[in-house]
Amino acid sequence: MNEILGILSENxxxxxxxxxxxxxxxxxxxxxxxxxxxxAGIIKKYITLIDWEKLEGSYxxxxxxxxxxxxxxxxxxxxAERIARFSEVDSVRLISGDYDLQxxxxxxxxxxxxxxxxxxxxxxxxxxxxxTHFVLKTYKEHGVxxxxxxxxxxxxxxx
Amino acid sequence: xxxKQGLKEVYAWNPEAHLSSKVRAMPPSGIRKFxxxxxxxxxxISLGVGEPDFITPWHVREACIYALESGTTHYTxxxxxxxxxxxxxxxxxxxxxxxxxxxxxxxxxTGVSEAVDLAFRATVNPGDEVLIPExxxxxxxxxxxxxxxxxxxxxxxxxxxxxxRPEDLLAAVTPxxxxxxxxxxxxPTGAVMTRQDLEEIADVVVEKDLLVVSDEVYCxxxxxxxxxxxxxxxxxxxxxxxxxxxxxxxxxxxxxxGYALGSEPIISAMTKVHQYTMLCAPxxxxxxxxxxxxxxxxxxxxxxxxxxxxxxxxxxxLNRIGLNTFExxxxxxxxxxxxxxxxxxxxxxxxxxxxxxxxVVPGNVFGECGEGFLRCSYATSREELIEALDRMENFLxxxx
Lengths: 159, 400
What we know:
Number of helices of chain B: 14
Structural class of chain A: alpha+beta
CATH architecture of the largest domain in chain B: 3-Layer(aba) Sandwich
Number of helices of chain A: 5
Helix content of chain B: 40-55%
Largest sheet of chain B: 7 strands, mixed
CATH topology of the largest domain in chain B: Aspartate Aminotransferase, domain 2
CATH class of the largest domain in chain B: Alpha Beta
CATH superfamily of the largest domain in chain A: Lrp/AsnC effector binding domain/regulation of amino acid metabolism (RAM) domain
Shape of chain A: extended
CATH class of the largest domain in chain A: Alpha Beta
CATH topology of the largest domain in chain A: Alpha-Beta Plaits
Shape of chain B: globular
Oligomer: heterodimer
Distance between the termini of chain A: 34 Å
């Protein structure tokens, strides 16, 4: 894998100077390559991974399973793109298996999310069925285990 | 009353008087002193750790748990599980291009530490001399002497990037010299020896008819091209006992799995000692090792990549703050010189710990020629390494 992306995917705050020191390359080269990947749309955004459960009264999340009735001329893309426009929608994926689109939705309360799905998503043309699953607890996100566990201890000095 | 006192005198017993003179004369490890100093400090950053900061990959731990659940709790054959020896033979064939018969030429040990001890005990006669290039891991000299041998140091130097020079070997050889210990990639310096470097000392080895005990436990952590073993040199396979293990490569220090590869007579002799002392390496750790060798390559490469990233910025960081550090080609240690400060290794390390709470190991504990250097392990998180560099820089400017 691209070494610069490897570092940035672990820490979006890594500066070109830090990345350059880790890779033994020049800061200019790292900055240039990073900019190139931003322009090429490989790097979309630098985000922060937040454990929302630590904040009181923050968000509730739901996973939607949507079945889509395909119509002539319009494939999955047009439905998916419509759904993606809503700011409440966090992610949209076309998947294999029993249903077609997997959507994650973010809202202030369960009621808000439920109404959003009922009013805006389920009623879209082409949506055959919508099943909502509320997220009760997130254990791991983006490769990071969210629960803070104590690190096992090493000897402070060893040969 | 009188009688009771008399009994006490009769049964008075001094355990000290019963210690063997060999063990009594053995100095305690210089690392121990630092351990005690650091252990009492909560917010110290330790660059003194000689083991990976990674936890053993989950799939390896899971394989061990499954083995325990299935009741894998018995002795294995003295030499270790045949499947594990077969897998090691296969990997050595791929890595070094050398063939070892897993029935006769491979022994699984309880860590490389046991393998070092066995190699000496199986080959050293009283008074035989063992050449030990320094700076080096702290166990070789005591192990050689416990086996009845006499350790003779061979100095290595910063100007040679801590590689062994043939003339230094020749100068240390006597008619009693029997064995040469090699330990590359090296703890504590991080030095590596290329095939060409090894060829330069091979003539001395052949001329003086030495056995080579080569501890290659850091071989997977080589950052400048593939690791070379002395056993790969033409005609040197039978003359060499390779010692290796999974501790450093697969983050498995606490499991204690090592192995020895060599000619049949030497491995048989080592197995004899092993069967009367250790019997066999722990079975659950052997199962874990087998899983690690079969499926742990990606994790191993991931850890190596991370060490390599740290190595680059940490070594350049040490040079930037004014500690002259050569580029280590392997292991996870940097070996900066503190000679420009006018302090001894010990003084520097003690003051750095007291004044800035950074623990390093003074180079002199790894041999006299390690004086003037520090061993800094970069097997610790990047954040801690950055903080340690800042604190070391503060310490250096306080000296001016």
